[in-house]
Design brief:
- The protein has 458 residues and is mostly helical.
- The chain is globular, with a radius of gyration of 24 Å.
- Helix 16 packs antiparallel against helix 17.
- It folds into three domains: 86 residues, no CATH class; 141 residues, no CATH class; 119 residues, Serine Threonine Protein Phosphatase 5, Tetratricopeptide repeat (Alpha Horseshoe).
- The chain is 67% helix and 0% strand.
- It has 20 helices and no strands.
- The longest helix has 24 residues.
Length: 458
């Protein structure tokens, strides 16, 4: 259902005799004066006029700008935003009801810095999660509004450029961690990608364009997650899930659910992680390649293993392996190419580690370490740390600290806050052996590596 136009905002802008571009410029100028990176465009203003949601900070700046123009007090409520109350800045974005709302939300999110996460823990209510999952599962595709009048025409060349950019940023993410390219990526997304979605295109180009935009949005979510900004990552993922509905891309939507499951599992929300992974498996059946189904099953296995359900985790792991045995016969999208046999072994070794199955964990982690392409530095670091933890489970302290030391020697992986947590978790696990020479050497190596990382950031 389409939203009603924001009649209050339209009326105040008319009274102030300010255009969309004029208001956008005044807002960005005021934000710059306050030291805030806003970057509002005329496209965003038009979406707000059409009834899309707005961030509290942005609404406040808009109200202040219009106050100055009109010479009388204007509040966000006078502009049709929030009613009489202002939502908390950390309020999570639910599943967008419309395409316009999803795009407006993404435009707002792309103005937020991933490197300044909120200190509040991410809390997702079960009812909100259930609503998002159900909405995606039963929704009809919006479809592409082809050949509409617009000032710009988009072609496949534009889509290829977006995919190439996404591939480049993905490689930076794998090698240097999510924080390295996030700022540049969100600027590219906001200035180069989102405006194209409001342009004119054929149905074929529009379908490819929304697919490419969703890939970039997903990468923004993942890089925010890797920097530890879980609120921002979750909001990106929820809005990206809505983008997959536009073109009925069930396989990509399942991937987003899998990412949400991965995050919930990482944060210890096991029941939500299991639910999200199972929704990915069920929602993609008959619509996804075997490789994609293997990934979804692996996410389910990770969640079940972390919850301690050995039988169910074993079933999901077997299901992932069965799907993966059939990958050679399938055509996979480029975004799924990273999920190779080494990546699958990496997922499974996490499961065996969490289930305290030392032999299986060591075996799968070693295979993952041996087979992972060095260009996936962060993945290799994760697998080495899981191998170290598995060796420790078996009582082999010397091998464990040696393996963990190799992971830290990789260096680049430490730029990932997730990898840093693997390291600190391992340090806690070996703290009982604090006087052991190998443990002392490892702890010194970690301190030196983090110090070098600080030096490089200056």
């Amino acid at each position: 259902m389409s939203r009603e136009p924001n009649a209050q905002l339209i009326a105040v802008m008319s009274e102030a005799k300010v255009s969309n571009k004029g208001l956008a410029k005044r807002m960005t100028d005021e934000a710059d004066r306050r030291g805030i990176e806003l970057g509002t465009t005329h496209v965003a203003v038009q979406r707000w006029r059409s009834g899309s949601s707005i961030r509290p900070q942005t609404a406040g700046i808009m109200a202040d700008v219009l106050t100055a123009v009109l010479g009388r007090k204007v509040t966000p409520g006078n502009l049709g935003f929030f009613g009489d109350t202002k939502p908390a800045a950390t309020e999570l974005t639910g599943y967008p009801a419309t395409v316009s709302e999803a795009l407006s939300t993404l435009d707002d999110l792309a103005q937020e810095r991933a490197e300044t996460p909120t200190a509040d823990p991410l809390i997702v209510r079960d009812e909100d999660l259930n609503s998002a999952v159900l909405s995606w599962m039963i929704a009809r595709p919006d479809g592409i509004e082809a050949d509409r009048p617009a000032h710009q025409r988009v072609g496949m060349r534009d889509v290829r450029a977006i995919r190439d950019a996404a591939g480049m940023f993905m490689q930076l993410d794998f090698k240097y961690g999510g924080g390295h390219g996030h700022k540049a990526l969100r600027h590219y997304f906001r200035q180069e990608v989102l405006p194209l979605l409001d342009a004119s295109y054929s149905e074929k180009v529009g379908t490819a364009l929304f697919s490419a935009a969703a890939e970039v949005s997903q990468l923004l979510a993942w890089t925010a997650y890797d920097t530890g900004n879980h609120h921002l990552a979750h909001r990106y993922l929820t809005s990206t899930l809505r983008l997959s509905q536009v073109i009925d891309d069930r396989m990509f939507g399942a991937r987003i659910l899998g990412n949400l499951s991965h995050q919930a599992n990482y944060l210890g929300n096991h029941s939500q992680a299991i639910q999200l992974a199972r929704a990915a498996v069920e929602g993609a059946k008959g619509r996804a390649t075997p490789r994609a189904m293997a990934l979804s099953a692996a996410m389910e296995a990770r969640a079940l293993a972390n919850a301690g359900d050995r039988a169910a985790a074993g079933r999901a792991m077997n299901e992932a392996e069965r799907h993966f045995e059939r990958v050679e016969a399938a055509e996979d999208p480029a975004w799924l190419a990273y999920f190779d046999s080494a990546e699958l072994m990496g997922e499974l070794c996490h499961c065996f580690r969490d289930l305290k199955m030392r032999r299986e964990s060591v075996e799968h982690a070693q295979r993952a370490v041996d087979d992972t392409d060095p260009k996936y530095a962060r993945t290799l670091g994760f697998c080495r740390m899981v191998l170290a933890q598995s060796q420790l489970i078996g009582g082999d302290l010397e091998a464990a600290v040696t393996t963990a030391g190799l992971a830290v020697d990789g260096g680049d992986s430490l730029q990932s806050t997730r990898f840093q947590r693997y390291v600190t978790d391992f340090q806690a696990e070996v703290s009982a052996y604090a006087t052991d020479a190998g443990v002392v050497t490892f702890n010194e190596k970690v301190s030196e590596a983090l110090a070098r990382l600080d030096d490089e950031d200056e």
